[in-house]
Amino acid sequence: MARILPQTKSAAVNPLKTSQPLGAAFAFLGVDGAMPLFHGSQGCTSFALVLFVRHFKEAIPLQTTAMDELSTILGGADNLEEAILNLKTRTKPKLIGVCTTALVETRGEDSAGDIADIKLKRVEEIAGTEIVLANTPDFDGAIEEGWAKAVTAMIEGITRPGEQVRQSKKIAILPGWNLTVADIEHLREMVESFGLKPVILPDVSGSLDGTVPDRWVTTTYGGTSVEDIRELGTAEHCIAIGEHMRRPAEVLQKVTGVPYVLFQSLTGLKDADSFVSLLSAISGASVPAGVRRRRAQLQDALLDGHFHFGGKKIAIAAEPDQLYQLATFFTGMGSEIAAAVATTDMSKILEKVPAESVQIGDLGDLETLAASADLLVTHSHGRQAAQRLGIPLMRVGFPIFDRLGSQHKLTILYQGTRDLVFEVANIFQAYRQAPTPEELDPLRKRETPDGPRSSPLTRH
């Protein structure tokens, strides 16, 4: 069990974590026709918008209640109501996801009560639009908690409660924030290959997959429909991916009675086998030949790649679930986790990270702990530390703004694990340094009673 070391610094040096409101907005962006709304100042929204645009290289629908000095003192209920009505009139969203920021949370505003009043007073004006609130103060948690809170809020606010007639082939899937667009697309294809019908919440593969619409769309286009969220209770089973998705899965079970199974990771042969076995058991179908072939390809990749991983020291900085996903992958390949840094201590999964300790901190902590590492693994803000240490950087997570196509990078199941093996092995090969003569022959400068002599290998 890893020891969790708390943060002791009073300031972050090269911050690692991203805020809760951004995580909640990220989840809302996985719903079709949605508009995330930051309840706070314009600066909070601008910062999140810049990170989203730099990461995805897309136009991101994100709005703000634009609280100023006066509304901060007197209260932001009027700003919230005005913003909701303007969005309804101008963009006609199917869902408005309200994400509170530190400004209103510190002030102690009753955002839930304000939204309830708006719904009561403005029944006709907002008809046809769901309004969901996620309480996500910037000063607490990180992107992981924000994503989970938004998914929980959508289930509590939209999903029809009560036991319902189940559709035997329908599977609700609650993916963690760290699954990429490619991961979710691959996940859907895998489930469908067993004859099952997946409903994925949130589904960023439909809205942030880099396609160009044939017309200007003011909200998200693609993703989980509001109607699908409403009918989640008709699913036969629920599969949650990542420890931070346990709470949304529990809420779905409580509201509708749909049982759930939680996978803490889908990366690696063992976890992929467990997932495929579950799909086979649910569907009653045998594993398709294509899936078996991809498993065989992974086995071959493991044989080819493990030579490059053995004994390597890895330094990772990430959100708790992604830290666990990557750390178990590397140790499974024979590497050692030399440094593990997480954003928060709010997840129980940290205790299972295969490392002696997990430091709650920032990229400054990672740089200090990673001096002897062979590979640095974190997002794009770790590039300066990697350069100073002279260590290669493997970019993962959010944000990745200095490389293209990060959302199309596959990291789960047989094919994604295979791709990770190749990516890491190629990094090690590209940065391999030629050994010096002394390293090849340690006896080269051996001292003798008659003085220094050369190795037999160097004699002429």
Reading off the top of the CATH hierarchy, the class of the largest domain is best stated as Alpha Beta
Give the low-confidence spans. 454-460
Beta strand %: 15-25%
Taking Cα atoms only, what radius of gyration do you get, to the nearest Å? 25 Å
Helix/sheet category: alpha/beta
- Main beta-sheet strand count, sense and barrel state: 6 strands, parallel
Roughly how many Å apart are the termini?
Answer: 56 Å
Number of structural units classed as domains: 3
- Can you list the strand order of the major beta sheet? 1-12-11-10-13-14
Estimate percent helicity: 40-55%
Shape descriptor = globular
Describe the structure.
The protein has 460 residues and is of the alpha/beta class. The chain folds into 3 domains: 20-158, Rossmann fold (3-Layer(aba) Sandwich), CATH 3.40.50.1980; 167-293, Rossmann fold (3-Layer(aba) Sandwich); 309-421, Rossmann fold. It has 17 helices and 16 strands. The protein has helices spanning 20-28, 42-56, 69-74, 77-90, 102-107, 111-121, 143-158, 181-192, 226-230, 246-256, 269-283, 289-309, 320-332, 363-369, 383-389, 413-430, 437-440, and strands at residues 3-5, 34-39, 63-64, 95-100, 130-134, 167-174, 197-200, 235-241, 260-263, 313-318, 336-342, 357-360, 375-378, 393-395, 447-448, 451-452. A 6-stranded parallel beta sheet has the order 1-12-11-10-13-14, with helices on both faces. A 4-stranded parallel beta sheet has the order 3-2-4-5, with helices on both faces. A 4-stranded parallel beta sheet has the order 7-6-8-9, sandwiched between helices. Strand 6, helix 8 and strand 7 (197-200) form a beta-alpha-beta unit. Helix 12 (289-309) runs parallel beside helix 16. It is globular. Mean pLDDT is 92; it is low at 454-460.
